[in-house]
Amino acid sequence: MKIYINAKPKEVKAGNFNYSNIESDYGVNTQYFTKDGKPYTVIAGEMHFSRLPKERWRETLLKMRECGINTVSTYVFWNYHEEIKGQFDFSGNKDISAFLSICRDIDMPCILRIGPWCHGEVIRGGFPKRINRIAKKRCDNPKYLAEVKEFWQGLYNEVKPYIDGETVIGIQLENEYTGSTEHIRTLRKIAEEIGFKTPFFTMTAWPSGKPDNDFLPMMGGYPDAPWMMGKTALKPNNRFSITTAKTEGEIGGDLFKNNSEQNGAFDDVPYAMCETGPGNQVSQHRRPYISEKDGYGVGFAKFASGVNWLGYYMFCGGANPNDRLMQENRLTGYPNNYPIIDYDFQAPISRYGVCRAHGDRLRLMHLFISNFDNEICTKQSYFPKWKSSNPNDISFLKCSVRADENGVGYFFASTYEKGLKYKDFKDANVKFTVNDKTINLPSIDVKAGAMFFYPFNITLGSVHFDYILAQPVAKTVVDGKTVCYFTECEGISPKCSVAGKEILLNFSESGTKIDDVKIIVIPYEKAKQFHFIDGKAYFLDGTVYCDNGKIYCEQITDTDLKNEITLTKTSKQKLPYNYFLYSTGKRGYYELKLPKNILDNRFDVVLEFDFDGLNLQVFSGKTLINDYFNIDRKFVMHLRDYKQYIESNSILIIRTAPKTKFGISNVYNEIGIPLYSDRVVLNSAKIIQVAEV
Question: Which of 210, 274, 517, 668 measures 20 to 30 Å from 219, CA to CA?
């Protein structure tokens, strides 16, 4: 396969942008962002402080940092803080001041998504009931704007110490807005009058957004679309494609129609994403399963396509408070039903704080961005001209080059698209031309399902490499020698070329030495255990984070407490029925008996169940404490979050609902669920310990 990529670099200009209203360390031009005057890639991960226990905020932020996140974004849901007019609640898990204090302490800048309408699968988009009753809202209605101003003033009073251009570096106004941008300007004016100062004002650019110099336009894309109405697998739609399209056509499809991919309209603004989906929430009627490649693939494709602000939604899952109904559902006028409590989102870091496989994969890419090539954002993306733009066309290799005007860069390739089976590509030969300079890249065989990138025309230490057929991760200098860590490109034997001479690279810990450069290639699977902390490499199996110079690793032990726990099917229990199970089938009831002291002197205990039913709920007494829409026939609970309930009542009740053929219990499951079964079996109850490395 011959691949021709002819680069015509765009001129990088200062840009007539008015995103900021404060002097700060951050800057922006038409191509990329800067910090302290140097090229900078924002890697933002969404975490909702109000959906996590306060005592886990610091730990969670540090876990995100270890995954390569350098900025946190979070919604501020109006109805969490001012459901009743004038009665503000910033206590407990809603304490945004305490959250921002942690952000400042660990140097994790924050983007506040303050609405007033947020979405985030929260009932009424976060509007309190009284706001939802206003006839004209999300517009310049004085009555509505007065309410917004009152809420934002109360919010500002809490966050004022952190509006310094360093802790809070961005404010998103509204979300998925379909009206006139004039209203967003009005919201910005109100925010500024109150005192919000920030390096960036942003807004989502779908469904029909147009560039506006007052707001940084933010794009989005997800591995699936559980908000869509159908109950069959979605057709491939460039979700994982390396493409010029800035956002995909289905995002926001639950709220409006005629959404279209954004292409050339945003070519003169930096490519920024606020909702790159490494996971998906599940709805009642759609249950896509997010695999490792699904969770990694969208972010990889966007990066290959030139994104320079990589914002993930969600990067860490969460849970809704159980004191009132906060999750969207059809009974409240929303088109989809969601779990009442669970908001795990199949995120890279689970709602319980466990780093998943796609979190490990993303960490490697983020390490490259922040460590190996800090100026990758200055390298523009170029694409081959194929005859077809059909996402279902698997006859050609989806690929790109990110390179500078001197021809120094990286070749990206992908043969992964959810729902498609690519073939292997044999002898893919790339010719890249820029500024009348032609670079012939080596012929490679690309395996079906592979996603990778490798450098070409690159200098490391004193050595100039024609190419290195391995994916770069991190580099450091030890005793005057440049030590580079790479991982293998899936299905490709690692090698490099220096002055036209090919050199095989081995997988040994000692690496391959070429003059003053040592290249260490890590096998594909082992690389997911790779961490690079303070210039030193670690291989750790578990969830890792650093705090005050110490490295911690959370691991599941072999100790199984299953014999200390009983799970028995029981008779019908009197439980509240205002918590919907969304099933026409007969309810089942199970009694889970736990030792009250099960968490004594233990960091955490994780229960794993086999579950064949459609949905389940967990009650302590009459209080709903957890729920689950079946995705993969496994149900997991970490007991640390439920300690107060276990200590007061060691018996929990699990209520289940089966899948049936008809009605609301007829759903799309990527992983099949048997009909009419509500079987729950406790597989294991293992201890999680945290150890200092």
Answer: 668
